[in-house]
Write a structure and sequence with these properties.
CATH topology: Metallo-beta-lactamase, Chain A
Number of strands: 14
Largest sheet: 7 strands, mixed
CATH architecture: 4-Layer Sandwich
Number of helices: 10
Shape: globular
Oligomer: single chain
Distance between the termini: 51 Å
Structural class: alpha/beta
Strand content: 15-25%
Helix content: 25-40%
Bound molecules: zinc ion
Length: about 325
């Protein structure tokens, strides 16, 4: 699992363990000046040891890291950034929106519970889901010092310049990193080979009306990447993708199918997004309730904007029905 794999000239992929269904996160060490690590894995002993071993097998060490680029603010991607930075002196780069979300995670979790209840999640399940996400935060250190990258910003190396590409959807400030000469794209969780990336519900800062643009943004970001000149994708989990356009087509088709599934499920009468999520993913474990709802409300929001679905609030819950 920890064997570093040279996926491209001067680029080593190291898989780090995570205690989630995906099992590992990919980080990439780039042997250019400055030596750069793309994503960091979570902050656990096993993750740290696997990174150390992987770097050593490739002929480097933790101290070799001079710069850390973070695709997005989910713990499996930034969790040990602060620790690595303090050990190596590496500077950290991230999109400002992700930095802000990491810093305000407790506030976000408070709002999240209300959002889940409003989406029809039973109280006990909402409590469990929030508790699960909250306790997972122990596997990450919040960031302090970091530099910001926005869409189109250059990321200079001695012999090349990468470009930061903002692809909101899976998370609001997700960045892909593009190496134009090599037609390479580091995609974080924006594009994964075998798994459909979930446009995670972006919890609004406060109050009604609650709107959920994550999926719409995700599909727009897919179109953005579809237009790029690419030969290889280096994702945050799983294998490299040799056929970027084919993968993107598959994802568009997948979302279209899901949209039809939701419309069909609403022909039987009004439902909360929790009930729709249960139709889509029967028997989801409680900690994945949040992801199921994310998927459902993303589609419902698009259907609502198209005038195909309407939402009515009753007893503090949102009910969706066909227009
Ligand atoms: Zn993620
Ligand atoms: Zn991830």
């Amino acid at each position: 699992m920890t064997m570093p794999l040279q996926v491209f000239d001067k680029i080593y992929k190291i898989e780090l363990p995570i205690p989630f269904p995906l099992k590992t996160t990919n980080v990439y060490f780039v042997d250019e000046t400055p030596r750069t690590l793309v994503d960091t894995g979570i902050k656990t002993k096993a993750s740290y040891e696997a990174l150390k071993k992987g770097l050593e097998e490739a002929g480097f060490s933790i101290r070799s890291i001079e710069r850390i680029l973070i695709t997005h603010g989910h713990i499996d991607h930034y969790g040990q950034a602060k620790r690595l930075s303090s050990l190596s002196g590496a500077s950290i780069y991230i999109h400002p929106k992700e930095y802000g979300r990491i810093r305000s995670i407790l506030h976000v979790l408070g709002v999240l519970k209300k959002v889940l209840l409003r989406n029809g999640v039973p109280e006990i399940l909402a409590h469990e889901a929030v508790h699960y996400i909250e306790s997972a935060q122990k596997m990450a250190d919040p960031l302090e010092e970091a530099f910001f990258l926005n869409d189109g910003d250059p990321i200079p190396f001695q012999s090349a310049t990468w470009i930061s590409i903002h692809c909101p959807g899976h998370s609001p400030g997700l960045l892909c990193f593009y190496w134009p000469e090599k037609k390479l794209l580091f995609t974080g969780d924006h594009l994964l080979k075998e798994i459909t990336p979930n446009p995670v519900l972006n919890v609004p800062e406060s109050g009604a009306p609650l709107r959920y643009p994550s999926l719409k943004e995700y599909l727009t970001s897919l179109e953005k990447v579809e237009k790029m000149d690419l030969s290889l994708l280096l994702p945050g989990h799983g294998e490299e993708v040799q056929d970027p356009k084919g993968l993107i087509q598959k994802l568009f088709a997948h979302h279209k199918e899901r949209m039809e599934h939701i419309l069909a499920s609403l022909t039987k009468g009004e439902k909360t997004s929790f009930e729709i999520a249960q139709d889509l993913f029967p028997g989801v474990p409680s900690f994945e309730v949040f992801l199921g709802i994310s998927e459902a409300v993303g589609h419902l929001e698009i259907l609502r904007k198209k005038g195909m679905v309407k939402v009515t609030e009753r007893d503090g819950k949102d009910y969706y029905s066909l227009e």
